[in-house]
Amino acid sequence: MATSDFHKKPFDEGTLIKLEIFQLYTREWLPVFLSREPTAGAEIHLFDFFAGPGCDGEGTAGSPLRTLQVLKEYSAQNLAGWGRVGITVHFFDASKNKISALQERVRSEQLLPDGVVSNIQQLEFADAFERYGAVLRATNGAKLLLIDQFGVDTVTESVFRQLVGFPRTDFLFFISSSTLRRFREHPSIKQKIRPTADHYQVHRAVLEFYRRFLPAGKRYYLAPFSIRKGANIYGLIFGSSHPRGIDKFLNVAWKKDRLNGEADFDIDRDNLKAEEFTLDLDGLFQPTKITGFERALREALTARQLNDEIDVMELCFAHGVTRQHARPVLKALKDEGLIKIEFQVPDVERQKMPRPIHYY
Question: pTM here?
Answer without folding.
Answer: 0.84
